[in-house]
Design goal:
84% helix, mainly alpha, 9 helices
């Protein structure tokens, strides 16, 4: 029977979430994680970062092209040009610049979708290589342990968490790289807002704070839940194998 007052009581441990300092201290694990990704495949890492950098700048360029399209349409309306038909307007050449801008906008939309697929492909390849490399390292480490070490439930929990997190680490990489991409896009938009409407930057910052707090809180809760349920999963796996 499990004592509810015991320090290792599941009921108590599940209610104890990580403190704010512990959450920030966990950021120290990012540099070793990034070094492992870099060691797995430098070319794929550079390809993923480079493609994301280009894709991060595309929304800014697309928005600027849209501005030019509107300016050109306003200019044509201001000239008071009258056309009996669209064919006459095309033959006259007055719409050439507008059509060129529309074509460029269409090309940018296709390029954005193509870059997104290329990023997904690069991340998938890097994920497979990283998962295989990490699994091999985990098996090599397990091979160095004695048989009596595997009788330790704490060690079993650590190995189980390491095995499970091996499959999910690339989600962290995609999220991290995606946040860097979004940050570049936001900085670009903020620079544009600084020129046209500086007060909107304050509104943008205020709008991002609740989203950041919510994501940080629920991500920490999800990780804590997975971490604290490791002993129960190990016992369930033991019972399943025993019953089989």
């Amino acid at each position: 029977m499990i004592d509810a007052t015991s320090p290792k009581s599941p009921g108590k441990s599940r209610n104890a979430g990580p403190s704010l300092r512990e959450r920030f201290n966990a950021m120290r694990n990012l540099p070793p994680f990034l070094r492992q990704i870099w060691a797995t495949s430098r070319w794929l890492t550079l390809a993923s970062l480079g493609l994301r950098l280009v894709r991060a700048l595309l929304p800014i360029v697309t928005l600027y092209i849209g501005k030019l399209i509107i300016d050109e349409a306003v200019r044509l309306v201001g000239l008071g040009l009258g056309f009996d038909s669209l064919g006459e307007a095309l033959r006259g050449g007055q719409l050439d610049h507008l059509l060129w801008l529309l074509g460029l906008e269409f090309v940018l939309a296709i390029l954005s979708d193509l870059l997104g697929r290329m990023v997904s492909y690069a991340d998938s390849l890097l994920s497979e290589l990283f998962t295989n490399a990490t699994s091999i390292r985990l098996m090599e480490h397990a091979a160095t342990l004695d048989l009596e070490d595997f009788e330790d439930p704490d060690l079993q929990d650590k190995l189980d968490r390491a095995r499970r997190q091996t499959m999910g680490r690339m989600n962290l990489m995609s999220t991290l790289f995606g946040q860097v991409q979004d940050a570049i896009t936001v900085v670009g938009f903020a620079a544009g807002l600084l020129v046209y409407a500086p007060w909107l930057i304050v509104l943008l910052a205020v709008a991002l704070i609740p989203a950041f707090i919510g994501e940080a809180h629920f991500n920490a809760m999800g990780y804590s839940l997975n971490f604290q349920w490791t002993p129960e999963r190990r016992q369930l796996e033991y019972v399943r194998q025993t019953g089989a």
